[in-house]
Amino acid sequence: MKYLVLLAFVAIIGSLGSALFFMMRDGQGGKPKTSNMARALAFRVGFSILLFVCILLAWKFGYIQPTGIPVGK
Question: Is the pTM for the entire model greater than 0.70?
Answer without folding.
Answer: yes
